[in-house]
Amino acid sequence: MKINALLLNLMICCFGTMVNAETATLPAEQAKIAFENQNKDYTIDLPKEWDQKEDVVGFDLFVMAPPEADGNSMANISIISGELPKEISLQSFYDENMKNLQKDTQKLKIIDSGKTTVGGVPALWVRYTRDDDQTEIIHYFFVANGKGFLVTGGTAQGSFQKYKPIFEEIVKSLKFNTAPKA
Questions:
Q1: At 176, phi and psi to the nearest 5?
Q2: What is the average pLDDT across 2-21?
Q3: Any residues with CB less than 8 A from the CB of 29 and at least 6 apart, and which?
């Protein structure tokens, strides 16, 4: 079964630009801006200081944290989505993407995984490290209104805990403009 392997493959390509974020500091309360994707029927709150990358092919949204003094970007979050066949469940969507991830990614180590809710629908998440580019990533998988969604937050290894509260706040802010159907 091949379920939008593109969703995951695009994510794998984009995390190679992250570098060490040991000096990153995050304000306790960041100003936020609302991002609305009318084509995909959702809104999400983002830190105002983060840089939205326009026209990143295949992504609904790609946003990077401000660079440090050395000019390197510390963290990013992205959303990709795509139509799914009606019979695809959340578990099938997750399983197929995880199979592709483990096949396409060298030296992957799963740290944790679980269940949550995103935008009012059930979601599955996984957090892992990749030794091939020294990143730590969290994926949130969910299915709503006939689409599969993948929200991803990534940092350099060793920096994830600094950004985890921001990633969680961003994910919790996602709301569908039309009542979601899982």
A1: -85, 140
A2: 41
A3: none
Residue 146's φ and ψ, nearest 5 degrees, are 80, 10
* Residue located via tokens 């809104």: 43
Q: How far apart are CA 95 and CA 163, in angstroms?
A: 26
Q: Write the burial class of residue 32 (CB in 10 Å: 0-12 exposed, 13-18 middle, 19+ buried).
A: middle
More confident residue, 116 or 158: 116
Instruction: Provide DSSP, the chain.
Output: ----HHHHHHHHHHGGG----TT----SS--EEEEEETTTTEEEEEETTSEEPTT-TT-SEEEEPPB-TTS-B-EEEEEEEEE--TT--HHHHHHHHHHHHHHH-TTEEEEEEEEEEETTEEEEEEEEEETTTTEEEEEEEEEETTEEEEEEEEEETT-HHHHHHHHHHHHHH-EESS----
pTM over 0.85: no
